[in-house]
# Entry
Amino acid sequence: MPWIKVLHIATLLCWCASLLYLPAMLLTGAKGQEGASFDAPVPVLLRFLFTYVATPFALLAIMSGTALFLVGQITGGWLVLKLMAVSGMVLCHVLCGALIVRLEQAQRRFLVPASGLLAIASATLMLAVLVLVLSKPFA
# Structure
């Protein structure tokens, strides 16, 4: 079980980092900075990071977390709240993908505030998960 926990924490860290990084890159792409130091356009980089980095890490984090509470037979009221927060993170992940599609289609209206709100929501949900896991209220 310790290796499942290590896998879960490592993949969760990478997924959370990507959930914070993608909205920041969306902000850059939405502002249309042409003098960027990237060789590839921002929408292409965003699509690559979302598809080949963030999504696999999200899936691995969810699968390893599921394995953790099945193998370890973990229960408690805090777990329900944690799963609700993780569901919110999944929703933020999906919304990030939708904003990337809007950027690719050059629909930049409301992209800047939506990206900012997405980053704030993601960070808040990550903090909620961290607090719930460390304090385990309602155990």
In short: Residues 61 and 128 are 16 Å apart (CA to CA).
